[in-house]
Amino acid sequence: MEKVTSLYDRIGQRSGLIKLLNHFYADVRQHKVIGPIFESKVDNWPPHIEKIADFWSGLTGGPRNYSGGMPWKHMSLGIGPEHFEAWLGLWQRNCINQLDEPEASELVQIALQIAVRLKTILAQHDQPI
């Protein structure tokens, strides 16, 4: 029987995630729509990247070290459809540029699921979406 390799392993484990996230957030920080939101909330990028790597690690079959309550951190940001669209577009571009198929597609699908979940939670709490 062939062993199934996790997405986490196929993207290069933590070092692969960190590489992807560094490229992604470099683009995010320069983006006219979502850049200002991140810049107003993140003072120190390396620890933020590490925390986000913990989040993505658990989602991709790696160690589950994230305990940050991701949806709740987004409640007061005033994010709307244009923010989700920008975030997803940058994520897709970075996944395609940094990873092979099907890993890029798998990560994009996870991001789409995150966006749906976050939009639902924000709507349930009367936050703009």
From TrEMBL:
Identify the keywords attached in UniProt to this record, alphabetized. Answer: Heme, Iron, Metal-binding, Transport
Molecular function in Gene Ontology = heme binding; metal ion binding; oxygen binding
Q: Name one Pfam family in it.
A: Bac_globin
Matching InterPro entries, A to Z?
A: Globin-like_sf, Globin/Proto, Hemoglobin_trunc
Q: Which SUPFAM superfamilies match?
A: Globin-like (SSF46458)
Protein's UniProt name = Group III truncated hemoglobin
Organism, scientific name = Rubellicoccus peritrichatus
